[in-house]
Every structure is written in structure tokens, then in C-alpha cells.
Design a protein that fits this description.
302 residues, Rossmann fold, binds NADP nicotinamide-adenine-dinucleotide phosphate, alpha/beta, seven-stranded parallel β-sheet, 52% helix
């Protein structure tokens, strides 16, 4: 079929109507869960990708789909399930939001390879596999792809190098997709928030606290003072941290803009912190930026 035929249905014509469906990965908590609920309230048919389907309460237009983004078989089953429902209901897939994440903190030298790999598997390869699997359905509607990156996809901070590497990979992947899907008029957007008030921070802090269990003694000795100080500071500032982070709704609003606006942006920096850091990263030479990255920025969030 010539590419031109795909233009018969315009995403901007169908988006926001009840005939549009959106799939969100990692919808059991945080941004994914809030976005799934909000999109369903806005009249979208939402497929909420969750690893364990009992996680969220479904409603008429919010359907849970089992989706572990690291498992190709489960992804294929999700494609089959969603295709069946779309065909039955006469609905088209207007968007896929790649949102699932795990995050491990720790200096590069001591963070075990299994954590680097897992973080890449969920964030990066998960995004690639889900996108490739759903592209045929998305192409039918000239649908959109929204990839959750972070300010960590723009600049690197001490002790979160593994997360930054995964998010940088998502940024490059998204840029490639945008170029390659342009002939079909398909939009690709990247969301880059600063700190957001979700369960993610507590989960990654817990993993960081548990890090000594996974590393050899000689590494522990090298980094123990840094690790201990960081854990103590994070625990002492827990309440304050959540006050500084932005509410989930800010990111959800941005995500909905990326899915529905006639002119979605290619990148959305969300929150004052992300915008300031990105500007400084652009303005400053690396060594000067590094001085801020290990001091000022670690103290802030939003
Ligand atoms: N929170 C922040 O400060 C912040 C800042 C910048 C960017 N972001 C980005 O925003 C997105 C959402 O983060 P969040 O803060 O909402 O995190 P969250 O509350 O921890 O949610 C993460 C979601 O990913 C899911 N997940 C983990 N492993 C998975 C896998 N193998 N397959 C499918 N799903 C999996 C989790 O499911 P389970 O419940 O089953 O584990 C959960 O639903 C992420 O891409 C994150 O990097 C967050």
C-alpha cells in the first residue's frame, strides 16, 4: 500500500474522540496510573499495561492488560488482546506511552552489572520492543508515541549514571523514530520531567540502601562513606524531598498535550528544575556544569 493511503485517517481528526485508544506501560503506579485514569476520564479507551493485572481497578474504558515490557511473549500476547478488543469495538490505537521504569542508584564502579542490565532492559529495550510490536496498529491511525525520559536523559548526575545511560538511549531512539515515521505523519514526543512525587523515589532509595548486600568488600570500603552519607541525607530529607517534587498531575497534563495537541512538541521539559538544568547544560562547558551537578542540583528536585 502506498504511504499516501495511510493519510486517509488523520490523527488530529480522531484524537480526543471516543474512537481513540491509548496504551500506557507501567500503569500500576505513579505517573502511569494517574495518566491512565485521566485519559479514561477524558473519554479515551485506555489499555493500562500492568505486570500484575489486579493492581488497578478497571472501569468501562480502562482495561488492564498484562504487560511486562521485558518479555517478548507477553508483549505479543498484549498485541493480540488489544487488536481483538479494538476490532470488536471499532476503535483505533491512537497512542502508545512508554512509561515503565526501574531505577538503581550507585556509583558506576560498584553498581553490579545485573542492575545496569535490568535498568536498560525495562527502560530502553522495553521501550524499543513495545514500540516495534505496536507500530503496525499505530500506523493504521497515524498514531503517536510518547516516551518517558527525564532530565536524566539530558544531563548526568553523580550516582545515577545507570539511569542516565538508559534515558539517553531512549532519547536517541525517540529521535530516530521521529525521523523515520515522519513520512507517515506519525508524531514522537519525549517527556523530560524533574522530580515527581511518585513511589519511584522510595523504591530506588530502598535499592540504594540495599546496595552493600550486592557488592564486594573492597568496593564497599572505597565508597562506604559516600554511600552512608547519601543514605542518611536522603532519609533525613524524605519529607522535604516530596515537598520539592512536582505533583504527578503536571506530568499527566504534559503527556495529554503530547497525545492530543495538533502540534505536539518533540521534547517537553517539565518543571522549573528540569528547565533550569537543561539551560545550564546547554550554556556551560562540561567542567563548569560538573561543579553544579555534584553540589547544587543534588539538593533540589523540581
Ligand atoms: N518520579 C520521578 O521523579 C520521575 C522523574 C523523571 C522521569 N520519570 C519517569 O516517569 C516514568 C514513570 O515513573 P514513576 O515515577 O511513575 O515510577 P513508578 O511509580 O515507580 O512506576 C513505575 C512503573 O513501571 C512498572 N514496571 C517496572 N518494571 C516493569 C516491567 N518489567 N514491565 C512493565 N512495567 C514495569 C512498575 O510496575 P510494578 O508496580 O509492577 O513494579 C510501575 O507501574 C518513568 O519512565 C520514569 O523514569 C520519573
Amino acid at each position: 500500500m502506498p504511504i499516501k493511503d495511510h493519510y486517509a485517517i488523520r490523527a488530529s481528526d480522531m484524537i480526543c474522540k471516543k474512537t481513540s485508544a491509548v496504551l500506557i506501560t507501567g500503569a500500576s503506579s505513579g505517573i502511569g496510573a494517574a495518566a491512565a485514569k485521566q485519559l479514561a476520564l477524558n473519554g479515551f479507551q485506555v489499555f493500562a499495561g500492568v505486570r500484575h493485572p489486579e493492581h488497578i481497578n478497571g472501569s468501562e474504558n480502562l482495561i488492564q492488560v498484562q504487560l511486562d515490557v521485558t518479555d517478548p511473549e507477553i508483549i505479543n500476547r498484549a498485541v493480540e488482546t488489544i487488536t481483538e478488543i479494538l476490532n470488536k469495538d471499532g476503535v483505533m490505537l491512537a497512542g502508545v506511552v512508554n512509561n515503565a521504569t526501574v531505577e538503581y542508584h550507585g556509583p558506576v564502579e560498584i553498581l553490579p552489572m545485573k542492575f545496569f542490565r535490568h535498568e536498560m532492559e525495562v527502560n530502553y529495550f522495553g521501550t524499543v520492543m513495545v514500540t516495534k510490536a505496536f507500530l503496525p496498529l499505530l500506523r493504521q491511525s497515524r498514531g503517536r508515541i510518547v516516551n518517558m525520559s527525564s532530565i536524566s536523559g539530558r544531563c548526568v548526575f553523580k550516582s545515577i549514571g545507570s539511569n542516565c545511560a538508559a534515558k539517553y538511549a531512549i532519547e536517541a531512539f525517540s529521535d530516530a523514530l521521529r525521523l523515520e515515521l515522519a513520512p507517515w505523519g506519525m508524531q514522537v514526543s519525549i517527556i523530560e520531567p524533574g522530580g515527581v512525587a511518585t513511589p519511584l523515589w522510595k523504591k530506588s532509595l530502598q535499592a540504594f540502601e540495599d546496595l552493600p548486600k550486592h557488592i564486594p568488600q573492597e568496593h564497599l570500603q572505597l565508597y562506604y562513606p559516600f554511600w552512608e552519607k547519601s543514605v542518611q541525607a536522603a532519609r533525613a530529607d524524605e519529607e522535604e524531598h516530596f515537598q520539592k517534587t512536582m505533583p504527578v498531575d503536571r506530568v499527566v497534563k504534559t503527556l495529554i498535550h503530547a497525545l492530543t495537541s495538533k502540534k505536539p512538541k518533540t521534547r517537553y521539559l517539565v518543571g522549573r528544575f528540569a528547565k533550569t538544568v537543561a539551560l545550564l547544560k546547554w550554556l556551560l562547558p562540561d567542567r563548569l556544569f560538573d561543579r553544579f551537578a555534584v553540589t547544587e542540583f543534588q539538593e533540589q528536585s523540581e
